[in-house]
TrEMBL record:
Regions that span the bilayer: 17-35, 41-63, 84-106, 118-138, 145-163, 175-196
Source superkingdom: Archaea
Protein species of origin: Methanothermococcus okinawensis (strain DSM 14208 / JCM 11175 / IH1)
Keywords noted in UniProt: Membrane, Transmembrane, Transmembrane helix
Protein name: Peptidase M50
Record InterPro entries: Metallopeptidase_M50B
PANTHER family from the UniProt entry: ZINC METALLOPROTEASE MJ0611-RELATED, ZINC METALLOPROTEASE YWHC-RELATED
Entry keyword Glycosyltransferase: no
Length: 197
């Protein structure tokens, strides 16, 4: 696989990335339950959600994809349309936010424990980096949402339970897992605070 193939997208993959990003942004911009009120405030929240939440989910998946391709694996993002439909139904009926937009599917005869660990680590590290990019922006609401959502995404994915990223990282290198996950878990529990403003 050539260097440029790492960044090559099929038309189906581009479609799935766009649909997943828009669906994620819609669900996060949609407060309460029932059908959302399509007013100017909803439009503003939708755009902010595309920028903050959508970027967090999609760039997390693309990081897995890129590192997997670096190791010679075939990898492609595929939307989980059933999961997106369930998310919309739960939002309408219960007002509950559930996100399962899809995943990167990786195909290779054999991945070493280290390769699998590094592929898995790429997603949470991307979210941590994005969180601090939003932190540095210092734009109310955008910075707050982008920072918090990305750190929560990183922390959730570092839980060492299969199929989450943490299970593959801890199998490869428990020290790396601890260095990344423990501060995240402390932050989620409110034992480690970072003030935005």
């Amino acid at each position: 696989m050539g260097y440029m193939d790492i960044f090559k997208f099929s038309q189906e993959e581009i479609r799935d990335l766009i649909i997943s990003t828009l669906a994620i942004a819609l669900i996060f911009a949609w407060y309460g339950r029932g059908i959302p009120h399509l007013d100017s405030w909803f439009g503003i929240l939708f755009l902010i959600s595309i920028f903050t939440v959508g970027s967090g989910f999609i760039l997390h998946e693309l990081a897995h994809r890129t590192v997997a391709r670096h190791f010679g694996a075939l990898s492609e993002f595929k939307a989980w349309y059933e999961g997106l439909a369930i998310a919309l139904v739960l939002k309408i009926i219960l007002g509950f936010t559930f996100i399962a937009p899809g995943a990167v599917y990786i195909y290779k005869d054999y991945l070493t424990s280290k390769e699998n660990g590094l592929i898995s680590l790429a997603g949470p590290l991307t979210n941590i980096l994005l969180a601090f990019v939003f932190y540095m922006l210092h734009i109310p609401l955008i910075s707050d949402l982008g920072f918090n959502v990305n750190l929560y995404l990183a922390a959730f994915n570092m839980i060492p339970v299969y199929p989450l990223d943490g299970s593959k990282i801890i199998s490869w290198n428990p020290l790396v897992w601890g260095i990344i996950s423990i501060p995240l878990f402390l932050w989620v529990l409110g034992l480690f605070n970072i003030n935005l403003f």
